[in-house]
Amino acid sequence: MSEDRNSMLNQEQEKGKKGTIMLVSGSLDHALLAFELAVGMQAMGTQIDMWFILQGVNCLKKPRSYFSLSRWLPTRKLSGKAGRNLQTDSGWQKVLQALNHDGASNLPLSQLNLLGAGPFVLSRIMKKKGMASLSELIQAAEEMGVKFKVCQICVDALACNMESDLVVAAEVSGVSRYALDVQDCHYNAVI
Amino acid sequence: MREFNKEASSLGACCPMPLIRLEGAIKTMKAGDVLKMVGDDPIFESGVRDYCAAKGFKILDIHAESKQITIYIQV
């Protein structure tokens, strides 16, 4: 018995520490916090899995310009295979796509948004202080080996095309996988 | 002045960036090499100390000139 336990302990030590960070909010400040935590903890030697659900997926999407047609007219097809149930798609998903803020540079602030003036001022301050912007942090996180996982329900409901809509490679998973990840991790945050 | 195998700098960058640069520099080095790291973040020194404590690296030397801090790390 003790040998088994020792081998189990050794295996755990070899695997190293793990952590999960779940991003629920679509605000710029919350997304910045989540990615700074993820990048910092990954650098300190903790393997981080990042989960994105609901509005949290917005910061991973490719930005759509306010002046492009695809921003206002949902010209993109509601296609994509991963994690989708295409029979139950409807036009309301296109309405939601047109209203949605896509892209790391288009996110609003949770407080003092003031119709976009808040994020503009914050980005000026961050540039002056030498802080990394959200898109730089996403790129750094991908390079350092943070794993990205997106909730299947919100991929299906928000008509997200996993192959072409996201700036990083992400995996579609469900709550069962999240439960497994959380049970054997040392750190968990829901933001 | 010490001898070093590699030099990295995080001048002008803020909180998580020194860790990212440090991790990127150390990935390309082998055991026993010495890294020279320069930074001017207010919590740069404590950040590098925590990083080395977590990863088991040795800090050889620290010296500060005004705001600029230079740290030598043995991998």
What is the molecular shape of chain A?
A: globular
Count of separate structural domains of chain A: 1
Class based on secondary structure composition and strand pairing of chain A:
alpha/beta
Q: How far apart are the first and last residues' alpha carbons of chain B, in Å?
A: 18 Å
Strand content of chain A: 5-15%
- How many beta-strand runs of chain B? 4
Biggest β-sheet: strands ordered side by side in the sheet of chain B: 1-2-4-3
Would you kindly provide a written description of the structure presented here, covering whatever features stand out?
The complex is a heterodimer of chains A (191) and B (75). Chain A is an alpha/beta fold and 191 residues long. Chain A is built from 8 helices and 5 strands. Chain A starts with a helix and ends with a strand. Chain B has one domain: 2-Layer Sandwich (Translation Initiation Factor IF3), CATH 3.30.110. Chain B contains 2 helices and 4 strands. The two termini of chain B are 18 Å apart. The mean pLDDT of chain B is 86. At the A-B interface, helix 2 and helix 6 of A face helix 1 and helix 2 of B.
Short recap of the structure:
The complex is a heterodimer of chains A (191) and B (75). Chain A is of the alpha/beta class and 191 residues long. Chain A is built from 8 helices and 5 strands, in the order αβαβααααβαβαβ.
